[in-house]
UniProtKB/TrEMBL annotation:
Residues 5-238 form the ABC transporter domain. It comes from Fodinibius salinus. This is Iron(III) transport system ATP-binding protein. GO terms for molecular function: ATP binding; ATP hydrolysis activity; transmembrane transporter activity. Keywords: ATP-binding, Nucleotide-binding, Transport. The keyword Repressor does not apply.
Length: 347
């Protein structure tokens, strides 16, 4: 794949309390949807503003297709970067119609053709029938499609999406994620999404950079960052997990409260912190088991399609996800069995 966006050692501070964005580096490839995922205040939106040109970098470099857009000594204006932007509040012009909103930034197209082209883009986003309406007459999902149409109409090299689904209700949010992803993929456009929503990043992006306290802790596919987290923060932030310490000796199998557990890194030695997702554990009835390995169900969360059990074992609580064919009640004695190796965390 060809590299589209390159961010190298990007750093930004606003005061003396240290950098908000701290030496972050990543790349976005052609036709790729990339996500910056992290909690509020981790620096992800500031990173987006540095890439778009709304903020100046203290250190580092931003390049698009090999062209330098940002260094401490060089700054290309936002309107000259060839980048589209979808804001969290959509930022549509209330006094313009839907069609006029989309046509507004088409300065590279002869004036008499702008509305024709803008209507074509609106049709691609499913909003062609609403071209004469004002933004105030649209629902949140419709406003979002118009904002996306306006962002992609000038055929930008890259589209930046700043928490674009956060103002929508849960059901519409799921629908719009799929629709926006389909629109971007069909248009062959690369996109950079900023979000604090783990499910949103996992379902929307091709790759994810997990940010914490201004730094990137891990970059990988959704499956990699979820199932193979590198740090305790990534393991916890991407979803519920079970953390435990054990002593590794360079073999794949280690001894734990759960009994023998395989590790994903057989080279690990010494005291290590491990993570195993609740869906990688299951529960069994007690049958001739060592009583040292028997736990007690202390809570059950029924979710329709599955059940989460809270199991107490040797003073530690473990979470176990099962389908609804495995039924235990609070106070039942159970044995926890790993289905997959535990992941050894680096920090």
């Amino acid at each position: 794949m060809n590299k589209l966006l390159s961010v190298s050692n990007l750093t930004k501070s606003f005061d003396d309390h240290g950098p908000v964005v701290d030496e972050i580096s990543f790349e976005v490839y052609e036709d790729e949807i990339f996500a910056l995922l992290g909690p509020s205040g981790c620096g992800k939106t500031t990173s987006l503003r540095l890439i778009s040109g709304f903020e100046r970098a203290d250190h580092g470099k931003v390049e698009v297709e090999g062209e330098v857009l940002e260094t401490p000594g060089e700054h290309v204006a936002p309107q000259d970067r060839g980048i589209g932007f979808v804001f969290q509040d959509y930022a549509l012009f209330p006094h313009l119609s839907v069609l006029e909103n989309v046509a507004f930034g088409l300065n590279h197209i002869p004036e008499h053709k702008r509305h024709v082209y803008a209507e074509e883009v609106l049709c691609r986003t499913g909003m062609g029938d609403y071209k004469d309406r004002n933004p105030s007459e649209l629902s949140g999902g419709q406003q979002q499609r118009v904002a996306l149409a306006r962002a992609i109409a000038p055929k930008p090299k890259l589209v930046l999406l700043d928490e674009p689904f956060s103002n929508l209700d849960a059901m519409l949010r799921d629908t719009m994620r799929k629709e926006v992803r389909d629109i971007l993929k069909k248009a062959g456009m690369s996109a950079l999404l900023v979000t604090h929503d783990q499910e949103e990043a996992l379902s929307f992006a091709d790759r994810i950079a997990v940010m914490n306290d201004g730094k990137i802790e891990q970059i990988g596919t959704p499956e990699e960052v979820y199932y193979k987290p590198k740090t305790k923060f990534v393991a916890n932030f991407l979803g519920r997990t079970n953390l435990f310490y054990t002593d590794a000796n360079g073999s794949q199998e280690v001894s734990t409260n759960l009994g023998p557990v395989n590790l994903n890194n057989e080279d690990a030695t010494g005291r290590v912190l491990c993570s195993i997702r609740p869906e990688h554990l299951t529960l069994e009835e007690v049958e001739n088991e060592d009583l040292q390995k028997v736990g007690t169900v202390v809570e059950r969360e029924f979710k329709g399609h599955d059940i989460t059990y809270h199991v107490q074992l040797h003073g530690q609580k473990y979470l176990v996800h099962t389908d609804n064919r495995i039924i235990f009640e609070p106070n039942d004695a159970v044995v926890i069995k790993p289905l997959e190796p535990a992941v050894v965390l680096e920090s």
